[in-house]
Amino acid sequence: MNNRIIEGFIVFEGIDGSGTTTQMNRLAERLKRLNIPVRCDSEPTGSVAGRRLRTLLKTGNAEDPLFNTTMSSLFSLDRALHVYGENGIISTATGGVKLLCDRYFWSTAAYQGVNGDVDEILELNNAFPLPEYLFFLDVDPNEAVKRIDRRNAAKEIYETAAFLEKVRTLYRAALKRYEDSGMKIFTADTSQPADETEAFIASCLDFLPKCR
Ligand code: TMP
């Protein structure tokens, strides 16, 4: 396991509908109010690989082993560009900007792990540096799917309660392996109101002033 930790790199993970994007944006707003430089990224990114992934997320067959391996490889390629590229994670976070990221390689372990080999996926992502903070946003998959339905957008291939239940289990197992990695890992129950989750996340960040 790569134990290099990038200070100021903060990752949000969780099943679809768990609120990763909402909480990342809320934290970014909070940091901006405190004049702390911040940037929000997400994976898949806008790279060529990332754009292809967005299409495949609408049309692919998650059960097909070849499709699944292709997805693991494409997500990892997209991530390599994101980590090491110009204005990528490393250059941005080491330049003093808090780099918030909606999803990182635990998403590949948990999602592509459902129809693939988690060990192989983690091996493929082994060289990537770790975030300083990792927030796992946890919610019941049935509640998550209700939230996704309320968005009224076309469903993506992984957005069923049965699939997300498996993803949730794999997330927990994958994160357990990183308990001694030196990252600060927190689980937030996002069945509670978003304000409460936001306050919890802020309370976990050592660099923020503590409010009473
Ligand atoms: P999102 O923009 O709603 O987070 O959607 C991204 C989708 O891609 C979501 O269903 C999770 C999935 N995904 C993977 O399957 N593997 C990955 O490595 C990443 C980053 C995302």
Mean pLDDT: 96
Q: Supply Rg.
A: 16 Å
Q: Measure the end-to-end span.
A: 38 Å
> What are the bound molecules?
thymidine-5'-phosphate
Describe this structure in words.
The chain has helices at 20-33, 48-59, 65-84, 89-94, 105-112, 118-124, 141-150, 161-176, 194-204, and strands spanning 5-14, 38-42, 98-102, 130-138, 184-189. The protein has 212 residues and is α/β, with parallel strands linked by helices. A 5-stranded parallel sheet has the order 2-3-1-4-5. Helix 3 (65-84) runs antiparallel to helix 5 (105-112) and helix 7 (141-150) packs across helix 8 (161-176). The radius of gyration is 16 Å and the shape is globular. The model has no long low-confidence stretch (mean pLDDT 96). Thymidine-5'-phosphate is lined by residues 16, 43-44, 57, 75, 102-103, 107-108, 111-112, 156, 158.
